[in-house]
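Entry type: protein chain
Record version: 2
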Amino acid sequence: MEIIYASWPWYIAGPLLTLVMFLLLYLGGSFGVSANLRTMCTLAGGGRYADFFAINSHKHIWNLVFVIGAILGGFLAGTFLSEGTEITLGSHTIEALKELGLESPGKAYLPEELFGYSALSSIRGISLLLFGGFLIGFGARYAGGCTSGHAISGLSDLQLPSLIAVIGFFIGGLLMTHFILPFIL
């Protein structure tokens, strides 16, 4: 069976990301996706209810445009520039995922058992999505930014809090992968 790659090679994605970071550093901006929620709440009038949302939304509107572009770009790349959704996984990884109950590891980036419409039809699936979303939102706020903001922008700007946050993200990812995920599945 032939595996078709759906991701772009590092020599295209890496330089493009580097170019974006140089432009942001030059213009005094920072990159992060979780800050968009604050901007959207500000545009919706959240500043009337909480000082946290009382910011100049026009200064951050470029970040919303970036997210819209990322969504549109992901759709266009996935629809027109990719030959399939299968990914390359090692044989040990495939065996481990099958032992956890995933029926077709490597067939898509998001396992149907966890992220398909069937997951929304069960209390367990909805609970996992809500609890996971809450943890991501709480963690991004508590850490002062999301993984992309700290790992890409914060480290590029040589910020020590971002280094500490990224180390925490990796530790959390390892704990999730080896201890929590097998319990959930």
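Comment: Residues 1-88 form one domain.
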